[in-house]
């Protein structure tokens, strides 16, 4: 897991380095981030505001709706209670009840009374009258398409829970819910009734209960009233009495969940609304309204997700609009940033060319902004730099020519002095004809030395060395011996004039002149992997280590600082580096077996 996280970090870092490698990407990221931040902030703020407004609107609209509907239900229940009162016929009704078992007219009166009540309202499924003393009932109900009247004895009614309840109520009435009741009275059960209303009829004189009048109410009018409270997806509606016994539930299972969670009990103790209730990870806002008599309660749980639907729709629409706006803005930002960075990119490219040594470049100037101002200054800098470089280059050429001429001036007098001395000695000692050869060699040598060319091919330099050594043999005789091992492919190699002579002169001075034994000078030239290596070796006594160190140190001195007896080698080393660069130069190796001087030149002599 740690390795996987590390790989992700590396990839994120690589992407970030890529995006931050160009100014264009940085500008696009900057402006895009600002746009995303603004759009997201506005969307979140508007979403929160719309959510609050949605909750407030839902509370206000639901509270007003429940209040209105509950008033209508209260009026409906009050109307049923009022309809159950005998009013002006109360004495006749009580008389008929008390004499029912003795008078046929009383029995007919009771049946007709129930029929009139039944036909007086269209929302009744049936009416029954239970005679307390006789434990006898009269009932009127609709069976199929006929209105049936029945009577009989039922001694089990006294055992029904509602029976004792209604007898002990001071208001002599009781609303019994049949919504979730599974068992009802056998003789008066109505399958579609949602409520049974019981009214106790008492004797005026004794106040003893004489009969119980019961209305079985069908749900038609109730449903018509409750239609004013729309139940959308995620909403529920419960209609209960003061004891929270349900008279209407749209979803019995949901009501059972409310009971199991203790929400109904919590509503009894609730003093303010709304109430928030969570079940199955769903949050409900529970709105409720109690009637003015505190007898009826309407409960309406509403899913918060349903309340927030408008806010969510608005938020999603805002995100959609924001995404479109972001795409348009991204395109505009990319175009604008590209317009800003394109001149900078062109200027950067010209700067790279300038840093690589191209001094004839010039950046295009567009507009009057800061970038154009910077470009103008860059062009001015290039022109000024070019002028300075040209001036410096000319000065350097003059300086190098002066150095070369000075080197030649140092070399030629030294050679001429030795050559003339050898000729004079030869002439005085023998007067032989070979002096003519020496003079001829001297003439050709002088002509070669004072020639105008600074660079010659190797074959010319070797011919010059042969003439030079023939003159030196006149001085040293058999003590001076020479061999040449030169690669034929290097005979046309361009080399500095008098370069090999400087190396041979060093061998003569530090080897031939220092000993009386014969000294062999070997000249070789061959190719290495990168250079042409020209070597002059002698088998003389060698150069002492401290002296060799001084010679090598002198190679690092400037032309003005040079002095001593090794100016020839110093000058040759300098000429090589002037002509071919720092990769050219001299190497010296010396011990008791001899001295080896190596001159290395880049292949091709470029």
From TrEMBL:
It is a multi-pass membrane protein. It is found in: Cell membrane. It is an enzyme of class 2 (transferase). Its EC number is 2.7.13.3. GO terms for molecular function: protein histidine kinase activity. Residues 500-605 form the Histidine kinase domain. Residues 338-390 form the HAMP domain. CDD domains: HAMP. It comes from the Bacteria. PANTHER family: SENSOR HISTIDINE KINASE YPDA. This is histidine kinase. It comes from Paenibacillus nicotianae.
């Amino acid at each position: 897991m740690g390795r996987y996280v590390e790989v992700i970090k590396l990839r994120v870092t690589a992407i970030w380095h890529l995006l931050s490698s160009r100014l264009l990407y940085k500008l696009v990221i900057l402006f895009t981030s600002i746009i995303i931040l603004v759009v997201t902030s506005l969307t979140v703020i508007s979403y929160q505001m719309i959510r609050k407004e949605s909750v407030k609107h839902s509370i206000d609209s639901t509270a007003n709706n429940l209040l209105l509907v509950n008033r209508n239900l209260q009026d409906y229940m009050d109307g049923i209670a009022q309809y159950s009162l005998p009013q002006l016929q109360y004495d006749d009704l009580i008389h008929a009840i008390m004499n029912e078992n003795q008078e046929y007219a009383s029995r007919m009166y009771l049946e007709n009374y129930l029929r009139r009540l039944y036909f007086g309202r269209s929302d009744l499924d049936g009416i029954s009258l239970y005679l307390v003393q006789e434990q006898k009932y009269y009932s009127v109900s609709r069976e199929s398409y006929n209105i049936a009247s029945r009577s009989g004895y039922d001694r089990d009614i006294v055992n029904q829970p509602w029976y004792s309840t209604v007898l002990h109520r001071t208001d002599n009435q009781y609303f019994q819910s049949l919504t979730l009741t599974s068992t009802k009275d056998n003789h008066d059960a109505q399958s579609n009734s949602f409520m049974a209303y019981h009214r106790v009829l008492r004797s005026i004189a004794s106040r003893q209960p004489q009969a119980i009048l019961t209305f079985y109410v069908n749900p038609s009018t109730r449903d018509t009233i409750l239609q004013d409270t729309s139940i959308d997806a995620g909403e529920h509606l419960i209609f209960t009495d003061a004891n929270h016994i349900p008279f209407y539930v749209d979803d019995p299972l949901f009501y059972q969940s409310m009971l199991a969670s203790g929400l109904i009990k919590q509503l009894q103790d609730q003093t303010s609304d709304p109430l928030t209730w969570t079940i199955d990870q769903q949050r409900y806002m529970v709105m409720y309204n109690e009637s003015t008599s505190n007898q009826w309660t309407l409960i309406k749980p509403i899913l918060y997700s349903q309340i927030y639907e408008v806010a969510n729709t608005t938020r999603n629409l805002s995100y959609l609009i924001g995404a479109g706006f972001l795409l348009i803005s991204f395109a505009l930002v990319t175009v604008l940033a590209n317009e800003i960075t394109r001149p900078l990119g062109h200027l950067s490219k010209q700067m790279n060319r300038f840093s690589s040594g191209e001094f004839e470049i010039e950046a295009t100037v567009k507009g009057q902004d800061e970038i154009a101002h910077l470009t103008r200054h860059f062009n001015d800098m290039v022109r000024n730099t070019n002028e300075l470089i040209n001036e410096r280059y000319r000065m350097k050429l003059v300086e190098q020519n002066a150095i070369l001429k000075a080197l030649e001036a140092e070399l030629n007098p030294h050679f001429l002095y030795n050559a003339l001395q050898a000729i004079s000695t030869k002439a005085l000692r023998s007067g032989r004809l070979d002096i003519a050869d020496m003079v001829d060699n001297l003439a050709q040598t002088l002509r070669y030395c004072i020639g105008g060319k600074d660079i010659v091919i190797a074959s010319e330099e070797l011919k010059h060395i042969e003439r030079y050594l023939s003159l030196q043999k006149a001085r040293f005789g058999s003590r001076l011996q020479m061999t040449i091992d030169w690669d034929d492919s290097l005979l046309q190699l361009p080399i500095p004039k008098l370069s090999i002579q400087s190396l041979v002169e060093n061998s003569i001075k530090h080897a031939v002149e220092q000993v009386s034994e014969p000294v062999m000078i070997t000249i070789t030239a061959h190719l290495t992997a990168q250079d042409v290596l020209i070597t002059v070796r002698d088998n003389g006594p060698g150069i002492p280590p401290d002296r060799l160190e001084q010679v090598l140190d002198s190679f690092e001195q400037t032309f003005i600082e040079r002095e001593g007896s090794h100016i020839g080698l110093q000058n040759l080393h300098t000429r090589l580096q002037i002509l071919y660069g720092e990769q050219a130069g001299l190497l010296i190796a010396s011990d008791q077996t001899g001295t080896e001087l190596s001159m290395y030149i880049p292949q091709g002599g470029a």
